[in-house]
Design goal:
Helices cover 46% and strands 15% of the residues of chain A. Chain A is an alpha/beta fold. In chain A, the strands form 3 sheets. A 6-stranded parallel sheet of chain A has the order 2-1-3-4-5-11, sandwiched between helices. In chain A, strands 7-6-8-9 form a 4-stranded parallel sheet, with helices on both faces. In chain A, strands 10-12 form a two-stranded antiparallel ribbon. In chain A, helix 8 packs parallel to helix 9. Chain A binds a DNA duplex through residues 10-12, 20-24, 26-27, 29-30, 33-36, 39, 54-55, 57-64.
Chain lengths: 349, 349
DNA sequence: AACACCAAAGAGAACGTTTTCTATCGCCTA
DNA sequence: TAGGCGATAGAAAACGTTCTCTTTGGTGTT
């Protein structure tokens, strides 16, 4: 086992070796000040020979900024988070930033600790990904975070959740959550479905759930179909919960012909429950999801769902946060991806 | 738009407000030195009133270390990476560390830049996730990284790839790649399959591919079944490549009865091609995958595959790297998860 | 040939902490 | 009551950079 000694070379060491002052070494490093060709090459040789690497902390301390972007989410394994993360990471490296990743597990205490840690780290931007909670205390705390970060010279970014108010210093990158739900529900209604269930949209404490529910409701209004409260089932955004909710739904309302799942993962649970019950998709029941994760195309039958521009969401979040000149509130579009999980309703004679 | 001024309070400000010296504030903060109760509360009040947050960079510079752990992979969206990341993140926060995430896209130049950046950041550990390339130049560079990081007081961790040599200062957390491939191939052979194809295992430049191929070969030897070279198909670890490779396989060798896919994503591609060709799983062709990502259970029919302890891999990587006292080379086990994608081969009369 | 000027390099302060060393005060012991 | 000691608190250095201010030396102008 190595002893992990700490013998890194410093600017001073390089300077001594090259026979110049530390200031000159720094100037060679940053290249913003004239240095003789011979001096420069002497310094560069010393750097190579000592395998010198600059100390990012010292640089940041001196005022250069940390060049860190923080990415905060509930859980790393959420299937669409990876794509947002990809977008964030791409844009961050494109703009010379490193990416910090943190999870909250939906725990307010942990969230507080995380944002505190980001303040300590002096991250250029703190990107909150995914829906937010609909509760006043939570909202208040977020607003405080926004001001605290702003005061510390960094930026709170809401990625995939609505604004906290026009005057709060945040960057907001949303997508048209309601519009997507409206479109995909309309797709179902247009195929003649009149008893359409919503699985996972009944959570009233979450922005994502609420907005998708709004789209569901609006589509029904537009088609003049009353929303049947007994067809609304709560479920967390997981396959297991989607499956359980669908089981109970089928037990009570066997007449359902279409199901809108809150997310593709929930839809996977819906499929599972339908298969157990011996109901075929789409012949007996049509199903639609939301998010368009890779799983959707691999379900059997391939799932009709709503495309969310996850990667673009991440890229945009970083770009806006780092370029104060740009518009700090953007709404990206969504659209329906038609696959094979929806069929016209059969009219029973 | 806010003007992003930079008016954070410092220890000095807090000291002035509390009417004490900076040293005393620091002592209240770290709590490792006796401070009068009244002084302490005066300082704490000043901290609250000024909303003071310590500067992590200054602390790190003073010698406290950065408390950063870096997580380096090819691509954030790789389905099993998320689970390794989860393990890393959990263990890192449990040990009071923050998580840096970087991607290389398999590009050696970018990889070099990333490791350089991690050296600048003085990360406590740099965790390389996923298989490595089998080429001497690459291996040499990795060895150099290991020494460079070691010299800088941090640790290179190989997570899911074999050691670079016993004397190289690294931490290695592998899983039994070959054993899993051996077991799952044996499972197929035990069901009477004798013409078993390997899709995606023919890449000879990658440790993951090579080790899984070894298990495939060893199982064949044990069963006395010669490996048919024409049944070995190269493919990247993606669905698209798996599909394409299977198409060409089916076109040339319609007599295949079993397929070992290099990964579950490749298996999804195999399913796709089989469906196109009108071959049923498992009645006409049995298929097995590797990794046991959530997708595997949702494919139709559910995929028999090899469970890789991804999350534990990540947790262990961090734990070992941060605790020099522990054994610095660990091999975790794998096991076959039997689902419904394998059937006994039908004996043609 | 004297002077001004410009390019190049060095000296030293500063960033915000922590930590060692030193100073002060009150109290206990002899 | 003098001396010493323990408990607190302050002063100042240090971490590794960058940057401002000087200094130096060479060149061009008159």
């Amino acid at each position: 086992m190595s002893d992990r000694r700490n013998e890194r070379a410093t600017v001073k060491d390089v300077a001594a070796r090259a026979g110049v002052s530390p200031a000159t070494v720094s100037r060679v490093l940053t290249g913003d000040y004239p240095v003789t060709a011979t001096t420069r090459s002497r310094v560069q040789r010393a750097i190579r020979e000592l395998d010198y690497v600059a100390n990012a902390q010292a640089r940041a301390l001196k005022g250069a900024g940390t060049r860190l972007v923080a990415f905060v989410m509930e859980d790393v394994t959420g299937p669409s988070f990876a794509y947002v993360a990809k977008g964030v990471e791409h844009q961050a490296t494109a703009q010379g930033r490193l990416c910090l990743i943190c999870t909250t597990h939906g725990d307010p205490a942990r969230e507080l600790a995380v944002v505190e840690a980001m303040r300590e780290q002096r991250a250029d931007a703190v990107i909150l990904v995914g829906g937010g909670f609909l509760n006043d205390e939570y909202r208040e705390r977020m607003i405080q975070f926004a001001y605290a970060l702003d005061k510390a010279g960094s930026r709170l970014v809401l990625c995939g959740r609505p604004s906290l108010g026009a005057d709060v210093p945040t960057t907001v990158v949303e997508y048209d959550n309601e519009g997507g739900a409206y479109a995909v529900t309309s797709h179902l209604l247009s195929q003649g479905h009149r008893r359409v269930a919503a699985v996972g949209l009944a959570r009233l404490d979450h922005t994502t759930s609420r907005d998708r529910m709004r789209g569901f409701t609006r589509a029904h209004e537009e088609y003049g179909v009353p929303v049947d409260q007994a067809l609304l089932r709560a479920a967390a955004f997981t396959q297991a919960d989607g499956c359980a909710a669908t089981r109970s739904l089928l037990a009570e309302r066997a007449d359902v012909t279409g199901i809108v799942a809150a997310t593709d993962m929930v839809a996977a649970g819906v499929y599972e429950a339908l298969r157990e019950a011996g109901r075929r998709v789409p012949q007996d029941v049509s199903v639609v999801g939301y998010d368009d994760i890779p799983l959707a195309a691999n379900l059997y039958p391939p799932l009709t769902t709503v495309r969310v521009p996850t990667e673009e969401l991440g890229r945009t979040a970083v770009r806006l946060a780092l370029n104060p000149g740009e518009k700090q509130h953007v709404v990206l579009g969504t659209h329906v991806v038609v696959r094979e999980s929806v069929a016209p309703v059969v009219v029973r004679a």
